[in-house]
Amino acid sequence: MEQNIEKIDFKNLSKESLLCLVDANLQLWADNGQDKLGFHAIICKAELFFSELKKKLAKTLIDELAKNNNSTHNGVVLSLSNGSSYDYSNSPAWIEVNGRIEVIKEDLKAIEAIAKVTKTRSEWTDKDGECYVIYPAVSKSAETVKATIK
After folding, report:
1. Does the reported pTM lie above 0.85?
2. 77-102 confidence digits (pLDDT tens)
3. Which end of the chain is more exposed for a tag (fewer CB within 10 A), N or C?
4. Calpha distance 59→34 (Å, rounded)
């Protein structure tokens, strides 16, 4: 199932078809020794292009969907989603508890900074004079591909 990626008719493909096309292309590239790195670079550029396009179309799309409620185009259902946020700053109880949480977060950052660099058991004393024993952090890593578009 060889298909040039630039000529794929995305408009008429279902989600299942798109996923099958991904698998077929990966197998094709493995069989033919295709330039996977070069193609990944193109994918990164396309992601940036479509991400920016979605952001810049958002206001227009919201206005259009507000008039039409839901809309289906090319096998994709488009609808408005309420992205509500809440401001709790008018509640004294919330302000007081949040203040304590912020102090704890600062202490946690201090502990993490020490744990990152310490090689052995260390001790740290917080602002209130409470002493904590800190052990070296365990480093976990996974390799990923970083792409910088110039």
Report:
1. no
2. 888 888 889 999 999 999 999 999 99
3. C
4. 40
In this structure, the dihedral spanned by the alpha carbons of residues 64, 65, 69 and 71, taken in order and rounded to 10 degrees, is 100
* 36: three-class secondary structure by DSSP: helix
Residue 99 to residues 74, 93, 95, 110, Cα–Cα distance (Å): 49, 10, 6, 17
Q: Provide the H-helix boundaries in the chain.
A: 15-32, 36-68, 92-117
Query: Collapsing DSSP states into helix, strand and coil, what is residue 88?
Result: coil
Task: Please give the Cα distance from 82 to 67 (Å, whole number).
Answer: 15
Cα separation of 125 and 94, whole Å?
27
Exposure pattern of 81-114 as b/e (b: 16+ CB <10 Å)?
eeeeeeeeeeeeeeeeeeeeeeeeeebeeebeeb
